[in-house]
Amino acid sequence: MAVEKTKDLWVFIETEDEGTAKSVGLELLVPGRRLADKQNGKLVAVILGSNVAPALEAVKAHGADEAIVVDQPELKHYNTDAYAKVLCELIEKYGPSVMLIGATNNGRDIGPRISCRLGTGLTADCTALDIDDETGNMAWTRPAFGGNLMATIMCPDHRPQLGTVRPGVFKKSEPGEVKDIPVIKEKVEITDAEKRVELLEVINEMAGELVDLENAEIIVSGGRGVGGPEGFAPVRELAEVLGATVGASRAAVDAGWIPHAHQVGQTGKTVGPKIYIACGISGAIQHLAGMSSSDVIIAINKDPDAPIFNVADYGLVGDLKVVLPILTEKIRKY
Ligand code: FAD
Question: Which end of the chain has less Cβ packing within 10 Å, N or C?
């Protein structure tokens, strides 16, 4: 286990090919700020990649107190062994108290890898973060038992305290002034022998349509209540007039009415749009886990007792087949 040398809270900033920061890293600076202040530590953004100047600018504008940057060509594309080596060396050297990692594909790979190597704990897929007032330990909250309860987990004797957080759970702050913060530049030697996997080629080919639910400002989602694959046609029409992205419940996805890329919820995507319109979705806890942080929730359901109305800001009781065409027409004319 690495030794805690500071009360600093680190946020891992995953970068893209262009050296920009993935959204989730900037999102995590928001809870990171609150938690770092609570334990009187610095909020440190840890940036790995190649030509990462854009990511550094972004963390400066999103409130980091300090940045540690490892900018090397070998880090342009994610590589488990290379990233694990760099992060473990940094953690051993600087001794942070906490590190937050976005639960992207790469984050889900690197988190367990470094926790195992450092002999510390990791709480995966968290949806809420706090620091326990009595002990000063992180209190990581995540869904457990198929989403039927929320478990708060602590790793009291482990340092650093590591956790992954799903993209979209926290909202990015608006970028502020680009502050002149201390930037520590590190170089870590990575030999070919240390990398057990070699990247030969990157093929940018999407299987199926690209569905960017995480960054959508408006989402219109359909559930079992749409009645079949054809029931998604009026959902898509409403989405089109609103400039929205189409989402779905798992029931609709499991029925084969719409591809999995559209699924919102515990086993789908976590979203936080300005407006979320749930059409024929009952409001099961696993669906709510993925969308309840939306700014405004509008539910359309023929059952006035559907649980979705408990979280909705606006509710419309009625049959989708009647309501959706009227709504779409009115908005089109507006
Ligand atoms: P239903 O619960 O069947 O609700 C359909 C609703 O449509 C009803 O409220 C009904 O009144 C209404 N309706 C019917 N006809 C009409 C009409 N003509 N007009 C208006 N309203 C109508 N679910 C997810 O969504 N996302 C997940 O990621 C997810 N992960 C899961 C993970 C696990 C481990 C488990 C166990 C479950 C998960 N589920 C998930 C499934 C979840 O428990 C529910 O089964 C699912 O969300 C139900 O989808 P639904 O609301 O579309 O269907």
Answer: C
